[in-house]
Amino acid sequence: MAQQLLRVRLGQVAAGNAPPAGYPRIRYENLRDALLRDYAANRRRWLRIAKNGNSYICGISTLNAFFKSFRVVDITTDVLREFVEKHQRSGAANGTINRSLALLRRMFRLAVRDGKLRDVPYFPMLKEASPRNGFLEHREYQKLRQELPQYLRPILAMGYYAGMRLGEILKLRWINVDLTNAEVRLESGTTKNNEPRTIPLTRELLEMLRIERELNPNGEFVFTRARKPVGSFRKAWGSAAKRAGQPSLLFHDLRRTGVRNLVRAGVPEQVAMAISGHKTRAVFERYNIVSGRDLKDAAAKLEFYLAGENGDRTATMSRAQVAGRRTTRPN
What global pTM score does this model have? Predict the structure, then answer.
């Protein structure tokens, strides 16, 4: 038996497929700790520090509980499916389970990169629910603005016009706001992808920020209440949204609205992505949601085009429907 195993190992060495030394002794905790060090070294924003001083990553606790003391050699695709099934039975959403699997897969890939492992097992990722399609038309935005408390109205405007994430808005400091040039400059490390970006301010948003500055001339943070940075406002938001006829509206829906409005306004996609902070077109498209009005506008534009092709002078179209078109009706 020993000779047979030796021949197998020698064959693996000759083929360049021998497992790294110490491979059977590596455990899940070794991979997890390496991932935490990688997150700390690269200052990834998802790394957190617990009250006891220990580092953790959002979503890693379920991995810690399930794979405690697991030898890495025993973490196979079948075991990963058991992990999935257990958490589905507990009611976890597919997206939540996928985030945990993605963390574990990242651990394996780091170990392969560091020469500790040779292979990464197949990870059975789940199909996730379709992205939300919540957004606000302008009249709905105006109604919601009226229902919100005064201190939340500029935060609403920032989300609606700039498409910024809520975390970016609440952490915004005056040193990042240029009222003279009407723009906000987010620094590297303050955004989700850790890349800086510049956001132009619309006239309404600029005026609201000027008022905020007059009310808080010596403050550090832009959005404050009782001279303290605005924190969670879930209850106030939910009540106002309900009164405005949008009971299921999330603040993040404003980001979808901002992206869609940029596209509707004819802003080039590359510029819109630079403003919104999306690095990939695939993610950007998840936010560029088509509404019923967009579909009706498309039908009206098609009708206008075909009427022109046929020389039909009787076809009519409203100014709003032809916005963005350069083609004119034939004489």
Answer: 0.60
